Amino acid sequence: NIEKTLEGKTVLITAGPTYEAIDPVRFIGNHSSGKMGFSLAEEASKRGAKVILISGPSSQKINDKNVTLHKVTSAKEMLSKVFEFYDKIDIGIASAAVADYAPKEVAKEKIKKNDDNLTIELIKNPDILKTMGEKKTHQFLVGFALETQNEEENAKGKLEKKNLDMIVLNSLRDEGAGFKNDTNKIRIFTKTEKKEFDLKSKDDVAKDILDFVESQLLK
Ligand code: C5P
């Protein structure tokens, strides 16, 4: 029997990769599975929250009456879906692996392999979480940082730059952490606190993250 510690709260979670179209059949994407975000959604729901889960293409399934799943494809679609709900949420958790760049133009027809070289011009995608941070009024915002070097410094930099309340760091230097694994090893930072966790299943990591969020909300 789980205590309904998030009863009355609305939690928005972004999850999965984004796909950025090149032409009608191709895209730029990444290997994010969406597992971390779906685990967070399930755990938040168990704790009594109303959950808005906005996910890019992912094979994860969720069947929970407190979770509304909105499927999107690109970063721009994810951004506009987030802002349909942003004013009404209490907690925002950005676990999506958003593509940093998207093709400037989407070819109308399938690109033919005629030339030996092909150049695709990319332009920067909107930073969804940074935009959430800029428009923050009352929302408690949680970001993720997936780093390979200067981990702590980079994570703290993102906490500041994106106007977050908390950031979850996973270092790719830790075995079993990150993207495609079923496990994760995290460190959490706020402006004043730091906490380090052991390697765990993503379901257990979701519990640690939400416990930490709840401890901050009580402050
Ligand atoms: O700057 P970086 O991509 O490392 O930041 C990671 C955090 O920002 C994650 O929480 C990710 O979900 C979020 N993000 C986003 N939109 C982007 C890029 C990152 O929401 N375009």
TrEMBL record:
The keyword Oxidoreductase does not apply. Residues 6-214 form the DNA/pantothenate metabolism flavoprotein C-terminal domain. Residues 11-219 are annotated as: Phosphopantothenate--cysteine ligase. Keywords: Decarboxylase, Flavoprotein, FMN, Ligase, Lyase, Magnesium, Metal-binding, Multifunctional enzyme. Its cofactor is Mg(2+); FMN. One of its GO terms (molecular function) is ligase activity. Pathway: Cofactor biosynthesis; coenzyme A biosynthesis; CoA from (R)-pantothenate: step 3/5; Cofactor biosynthesis; coenzyme A biosynthesis; CoA from (R)-pantothenate: step 2/5. CTP binds at D100, K110, P126, D127, I128, L129, F144, K158, K162. Its EC number is 4.1.1.36, 6.3.2.5. Binds 1 FMN per subunit. It catalyses: (R)-4'-phosphopantothenate + L-cysteine + CTP = N-[(R)-4-phosphopantothenoyl]-L-cysteine + CMP + diphosphate + H(+); N-[(R)-4-phosphopantothenoyl]-L-cysteine + H(+) = (R)-4'-phosphopantetheine + CO2. Catalyzes two sequential steps in the biosynthesis of coenzyme A. In the first step cysteine is conjugated to 4'-phosphopantothenate to form 4-phosphopantothenoylcysteine. In the second step the latter compound is decarboxylated to form 4'-phosphopantotheine. Catalyzes two steps in the biosynthesis of coenzyme A. In the first step cysteine is conjugated to 4'-phosphopantothenate to form 4-phosphopantothenoylcysteine, in the latter compound is decarboxylated to form 4'-phosphopantotheine. In the C-terminal section; belongs to the PPC synthetase family. In the N-terminal section; belongs to the HFCD (homo-oligomeric flavin containing Cys decarboxylase) superfamily. This is Coenzyme A biosynthesis bifunctional protein CoaBC. The gene is coaBC.
